[in-house]
């Protein structure tokens, strides 16, 4: 790939343009908001000059509602050899392109993709060539997708140092409904229960609810777009969850009974649900995309002064131990905190000994 | 308080006994499992010798099902001046004590409490005097509770360096249903959806679902006990959540409609839910028990070698910046990672500059 056209210079478009430019690809930038395109160019993402001919690859990174229309216009103009989009739901663009009467021969040169990169901010100023590093980037070729276009996409993904995952478009949309869209709404619904809760109750929030509701703080506008593009699979999953929720209520009501036999049945039902949850949680991949490693956790008490964490990590480094994960537990109304260090099981006792030796107070 | 009797030398009983002993209180330890009591004594939590008379304070730290029976026996024996339990649900013990025909005059000397301390392991060997530091410790005096017993409890909480919170027993049980028991079951239900999911779908799990399902890995036995003691309030909350879930399904189905007016209504409904979630999330207290501070996040790319985190924290420490929270984002199939550092807004730009200067690659 030597030339590319990036349409839409927000966070995603500008980030991938930066990665391509860094690898020597000539990138032409277009955005309905010409200021955004100029900003992206000034950051080194490419040029706002028109390509003046057919480019190797056109990448459409516009808001979901404009993806199909933009692709259709580019295809009609024969703007590129291959065409990609980066929208977070894949069924829509293809269906719309077909509905717009796109020539099937040209449609072979379109490939739907979805880089699963985090976004805390938006716009070209938030862009970075490293945005996609290590994240999955889903490619959804149809049966007749041009192999050359698939290879262009793989080249783009490699330039961005992402991890390509090939999936059927429908399977992708079901998968993100399961692992992203449904959990988002459930987190929202749990957090919504706190909206009018008593202050005293809210004071008792611990790390559990803090984790469950973290993503409930997400930007509504972004999530309306995402959910609007994938409502069916998400609704189906919430329906299934609703059945399990009904079962949870049923067995909890049995636990309220005065009859020991009914209470026992309730306890069994609760256990069944909790064990299914254990089994599902065990499937969530940990670091490096592997099955979750059984890390050991070491809890260290720290004061809230600058440098305390640095000293812990320096001491762990000196002991030659790699910290796989860190969690800081927040103390209520106090300056002290608890740091949970996750390490490989074989490293745990050595690290604990090294930290104790250096005067850290460990919690068993 | 000069003498105490701790009945039940598991994690909680042994931990508070260690804290009391450290403050010069003579602590007598009893457990149905005499080995557990001896282990606690050998750790310095007190003595297994019988008090040989009335102690100042008896603390019952036995499994929930045995709390009321143990308290009733102690009250009958006039074993102490004041009596506490530490069970995680408060309505049950008092109701059972009344049902057991406890003399109301003696019942005034019982106070139900709940230390909200984390427990990853159990048993006396996991105990530490610091277990309760900075955590809320709920005290639930009844209208006629002896003030002297309340003061004994406040002294115990102070010795354990916990933060006392006085609440009505019923309000406590509703509050923990809301901020702990309901979120636990919801996390379980989301994780359960993954139990039989396709491998490819599970590979796409990101930090969002990882956070939502973290507590789904909890020990079923512990949660059966907790939920059995508080089934009514939890079931009521799940019922209310179920109604919101039904509303979520309804508005998602509208988004599937071919009619623009219905789709617009669906989008409005989704936005309403997302905004309620935003509002609820904003109430979850952050560190130091305050309302959540608006920290700024700085994202730093690191390799997976030992010492990388140490270098970051050392560099932050040198810049005089206190890291309020850390989150490591796991990259799929790659050795590189992304570390999110949360810092006070006024410290953010200085830290970013200091880290860049020292060669770190920051993600905007």
Automatic annotation (TrEMBL), chains A, B:
Keyword hit for Ubl conjugation: no
Top-rank lineage group of the source organism: Bacteria
Pfam family membership, one: PDH_N
Catalysed reaction, written as an equation: prephenate + NAD(+) = 3-(4-hydroxyphenyl)pyruvate + CO2 + NADH
Class of the enzyme per the UniProt entry, highest EC level: oxidoreductase
Molecular function terms, GO-annotated: prephenate dehydrogenase (NAD+) activity
Record-stated family: Belongs to the prephenate/arogenate dehydrogenase family.
NCBIfam families assigned to the protein according to its UniProt record, in alphabetical order: PRK06545.2-1, PRK06545.2-3, PRK06545.2-4
Protein's name according to its UniProt entry: Prephenate dehydrogenase
